[in-house]
Design goal:
By secondary structure, the protein is an alpha/beta fold. The protein has a single domain, classed as Rossmann fold (3-Layer(aba) Sandwich), CATH 3.40.50. A hairpin with a 6-residue loop joins strand 9 and strand 10. Helix 3 crosses helix 6, helix 4 packs across helix 5 and helix 11 runs parallel beside helix 12. It binds S-adenosylmethionine (SAM). The site of S-adenosylmethionine has 20 residues, from helix 4, helix 5 and strand 2.
Length: 312
């Protein structure tokens, strides 16, 4: 979509950190801008995956579009966050480690946490090193390295994608358009749920129309936005505000406060939407990361439940 190319010109370019052999550059550059969309999306994604599992009776397979180094898989499947991973990769002693050695350490690291999610993850990204890394450290079960903006999926790509139940993306719409969604949807065996966190500067209409042609109804979560990151500098801030205002979007209290804001779009078969509209499926909790003192947490359910005291 030509429109996305024009809109992208107002955003800073980070292409050089997307295709490094490991995620150190990604976490240090985006972490320094308080990139947080995987963390703020995570509780919402968890609720949606649980709802999908309840509806079908099967633990879903998630296809993460623009999966990069497998971060959404890490924060869903393991008790980790972008913030915590950033500290790991920013540790000065990590800077001297060779990429192959880091991959070995990371296989152990990711393998050392209990699983907290039920979904399995596969990924799609244009970046070969990022996808290979995510698969090699065990975050993704499988990965597709491809650019469906430029070409159709190969038979082996279709085979890998075919079992996905949920198509997820954070920070990727804008790089990908309806072309990628069409290619993905046409590779699937079953009608998926499509969950997209999308910066407000990228209109979602063309993607929603492509999904509608394939039988999915799109809802936008009303009354909630999700912070993606801070603007990098004054130039990006000024350009993005101008772009949003040209689109007729009021930035007061949102981007005008210095942070990119994403919205949540979820597309599902009509009967699933009729059974539970999006507003009933998800609850957004504000301030969940602001408490600093000790708190009580209940883990597990029913007779298995335990109450734990979590220190600050
Ligand atoms: C801002 S990063 C988001 C990564 C991850 N989802 C997250 O939120 O941390 C954007 C990702 O989109 C990927 N990307 C760019 N163009 C793409 C395309 N045509 N198809 C698939 N992925 C693409 C980049 O390589 C990069 O990994």
């Amino acid at each position: 979509m030509q429109q996305y190319a024009t809109l992208n010109a107002s955003k800073a370019n980070f292409d050089n950190i997307y295709d490094q052999p490991d995620p150190r550059g990604y976490f240090s550059v985006l972490g320094a801008l308080d990139y947080m969309i995987p963390d703020v999306a995570e509780p919402i994604i968890r609720q949606i995956l649980r709802a999908r599992e309840k509806r079908t009776g099967v633990a879903p397979t998630v296809l993460d579009v623009g999966c990069s180094y497998g971060i959404n898989a890490a924060v869903h499947r393991l008790p980790l966050s972008f913030r915590r991973l950033r500290l790991r990769y920013a540790n000065p002693d990590m800077a001297a480690v060779e990429p192959e050695e880091l991959a070995r350490l990371d296989r152990n690291y990711y393998g050392s946490w209990p699983h907290t999610g039920s979904a399995r993850f596969i990924g799609l990204d244009i970046s070969a090193p990022a996808v290979r890394y995510a698969v090699s450290v065990g975050l993704l079960d499988a990965g597709v390295i491809a650019n469906f903006e430029r070409g159709a999926p190969r038979p082996e790509d279709r085979r890998t994608l075919s079992g996905a139940d949920v198509v997820l993306s954070t920070g990727c719409v804008g790089y990908v358009t309806e072309r990628t969604f069409a290619a993905v949807l046409d590779s699937l065996e079953r009608p998926p749920w499509v969950v997209s966190f999308v910066l407000r500067m990228f209109p979602y209409d063309a993607i929603a129309a492509t999904l509608a042609e394939r039988g999915l109804v799109t809802e936008k979560l009303a009354g909630a936005t999700f912070v993606q990151r801070r603007f990098r500098d004054l130039t990006e801030f000024g350009n993005c505000l101008a772009t949003l205002e040209k689109l007729g979007i009021d930035t007061t209290g949102l981007e005008a406060e210095g942070r990119f804001q994403a919205e949540l779009f979820v597309s599902r078969p009509r009967e699933d939407v009729a059974a539970a509209p999006l507003g009933k499926l998800v609850t957004v909790v504000s301030g969940r990361n602001r408490t600093v003192g000790t708190r009580y947490v209940r883990v597990g359910r029913g007779t298995e439940a335990q109450v734990l005291r979590v220190p600050s």
